[in-house]
Amino acid sequence: MKTKNNKVKKKLWLTAATLSCAVMLFGATAKADVALPPQNEVRLAGDVLTLGDVFQDVKNNAGHVLAPAPAPGKTIILTAADLQRIADAFHISWQPDSSYTRLIVRRDAAPVSPAKISEALKKKLASIVGGSSYEIDLDKRFGEIYINGTTAPEISVTNMDVSPAGGRFAANLSLTTPQLTKNVNITGMAHRVLDVPVLNRRLRNGDVIEASDIEFIRMRADNVAESAILDPEKLIGQTPRRVLDAMETVLPDNIAAPLAVKKGEYVTLFLTQGGLHLTARGKALENGAAGDVVRVVNTASSRIIEGEVVGAQSVRIAAAM
Q1: Three-state secondary structure readout of the chain
Q2: pTM of the predicted model, to two decimals?
Q3: Are residues 310 and 274 in the same domain?
C-alpha cells in the first residue's frame, strides 16, 4: 500500500513539473494577450495579412503572417470561426459577438479605367495607321485591371501589333504611379469607325432634304454598306424615293433629285434663238427633275417635243415649238 501511494505521489509530481516547465518555456505565448476586437473591414497595402491586421493593438506576434493578401482589388472574408481559431492559436482573449461576426480583408488597389486604356490604345493606333478612328474591344478574359495603391496610374502603350485584315491587336501597357510601375500585356479587337450622315427625322417622297435634316452617327465600318452615302452634300436637295426612317444609313438608290415637272401638269416652254425669246404653254408627258430631258406637248400646236427641265414647271426647248 505504501509503495502504491509513493507511485501516485511521484506521478503527480512529474505532471506538475511538466506543466511548470511548459509555463516557463511557453509563457510568452501561453499568457493571454489583449487586443481590440476586429473591425468590419481591413484594407491592406502590402502583400501579406498579419495578426496585427486582424487584431488591433495585439502585443505579441503582431507581425506574424497569417496568409497572403488578396489580389489587388479583391477581398477575402474571415468568419467568426476563423477569427476564433486565430485568437485561440495566439492566446488572445477574444470571442465573437455572434456567429455572424466576420472580417472583410480588402487589398488596396486603384482600378485602371477600361475607357482610359481604350483611349491610350486609340492614340497609339492612330500613330500606326493614320487618321482613321477606331473603337477598342478588350478581350473579356482581362476583366478589371488593378494596380497596388490608391493612385490612378498614368497609362502608356509601349508596343502594339495590329492585324491589318481583322483588326486583332496585342499591346504592352505601362501603368505608372509615384510608387511603382506595372507592365500589362493586353489583347483585343480594333474596329474602324465612320461618321455616317443620316436623317434626323422621317422623310417621304417629295420632301426635300435640307442641311438641318442631317446629323452624324458613329458606326463600325463593317456595319456600313459599301455604297452608303458618306458625304452629306450628296443628300442635301434630294428627295427620298420611298419613306426613309431617321437614323438609318442612306444608299444612292434611296434618293433622287426632287421632281420639278410632273407628268400631266402644265408647264411653261421657253425658246431662246438668237435674240428672240419665246414662251408657250405645254403639258408634261413624263416626270423630270432639274437637268432632266423630258417630252412635252405644245398645247397650241399639239406638237410633241423634248426639252430640258430648268425649274419648277419650266422646260427649255432647243428647237422651234
Answers
A1: CHHHHHHHHHHHHHHHHHHHHHHHHHHHHHCCECCECCCCEEEECCCEEEHHHHCECCCCCCCCEEEECCCCCCEEEEEHHHHHHHHHHCCECCCCCCCCCEEEEEECEEEECHHHHHHHHHHHHHHHHCCCEEEEEECHHHCCEEEECCCCCEEEEEEEEECCCCCEEEEEEEEECCCCEEEEEEEEEEEEEEEEEEECCCECCCCCCCHHHEEEEEEEHHHCCCCCCCCHHHCCCCEECCCECCCCCCCHHHEECCEEECCCCEEEEEEEECCEEEEEEEEECCCEECCCEEEEEECCCCCEEEEEEEECCEEEECCCC
A2: 0.59
A3: yes
